[in-house]
Design goal:
This is Purine nucleoside phosphorylase. This protein is of the alpha/beta class. The chain has one domain (about 10-170, about 205-254): CNF1/YfiH-like putative cysteine hydrolases. About 20% of the residues lie in helices and about 25% in strands. It has six helices and 15 strands. The strands form three sheets. The protein has a six-stranded mixed β-sheet, with no helix packed on it. Helix 3 (about 140-155) packs parallel to helix 5. The radius of gyration is 17 Å and the shape is globular. The protein starts with 9 loop residues before the first strand and ends with a strand. The mean pLDDT is about 95.
Length: about 250
């Protein structure tokens, strides 16, 4: 079994520590009330867990961050490239990235192997939460989200800080040629253990998009943890064979 690193319900990015008005975190799988295979802090409503347990878990998660569940803005995710400007909290449909410059709206995305990216524009007090699977990554969703923030809020890379959260690691993300062909050689390598397979580094590909926008590497934090390798602490869709819970990544300004 892999070593367990966490007992708390949240992981807080260090990159955002200087900003006292900012709420930013990624949940772990600990501290909730759900039963196997969703043990214990499952925050996803669409995975087969009991609704009352998920609602209680969301209250636990929000209480840990001292925010109200009624102030969350989130969307059903479709592995697309559409970005929502959230001006009100609530549930939306069909967006994999959300941005806002409104206080007390906390953007939330769901993950269980895909890459969560949280971005804060400290100059214009604006934030983004992005869910990037291979399709969103190949579609340059992170870069498109930043360009939308630039258009809406005047976002400049000099004042942006970003967190690339816990996601599946390259060593455990095996894909076929149909997926690998969408990525440059910098982000994939041939899997010598299986003919016609590749290992894909989604976190590096998304970090490159932050860099393409002009965000300096010193203003980007990349989590060293893996949903797959550290599945005792984080939900992994691939490790579990598809039956598991969901974590959330969240960002917003008080």
């Amino acid at each position: 079994m892999p070593e367990r690193f966490f007992t708390d319900s949240i992981l807080e990015p260090k990159i955002f520590a200087p900003f006292s008005n900012l709420v930013a975190a990624q949940s772990t799988r600990h501290g909730g009330v759900s039963e196997p295979p969703y043990e214990t802090l499952n925050l996803g409503m669409t995975v087969g867990d009991a609704r009352d347990k998920v609602l209680q878990n969301r209250k636990i998660f929000c209480h840990r961050l001292s925010i109200s569940p009624e102030r969350l803005a989130f969307s059903s995710q479709v592995h697309g490239e559409t970005v929502l400007f959230a001006t009100q909290p609530g549930s939306y449909e069909g967006f994999d990235a959300l941005v806002t410059n409104r206080k007390n709206i906390f953007l939330m995305i769901s993950i269980a192997d895909c890459v969560p990216i949280l971005i804060y524009d400290a100059q214009h007090q604006a934030a983004a939460a992005i869910h990037a699977g291979w399709r969103g990554t190949a579609a340059n969703l992170v870069f498109k989200t930043l360009k939308m923030m630039q258009s809406l809020f005047g976002t400049d890379p000099t004042h942006c800080f970003a967190f690339i959260g816990v996601a599946i690691d390259k060593e455990n993300y095996q894909v076929g040629e149909d997926v690998a062909k969408h990525f440059s050689a910098a982000f994939k390598q041939v899997d010598v253990s299986a003919d016609g397979k590749f290992l894909l580094d989604l976190r590096a590909a998304n970090a490159a998009q932050l860099g393409d926008f002009g965000i300096d590497r010193s203003q980007i934090e990349i989590s060293p943890y893996s949903t797959y390798s550290h599945h005792r602490d984080f939900f992994s869709h691939r490790f579990s064979g598809g039956k598991t819970g969901r974590m959330m990544a969240i960002i917003g300004m008080r």
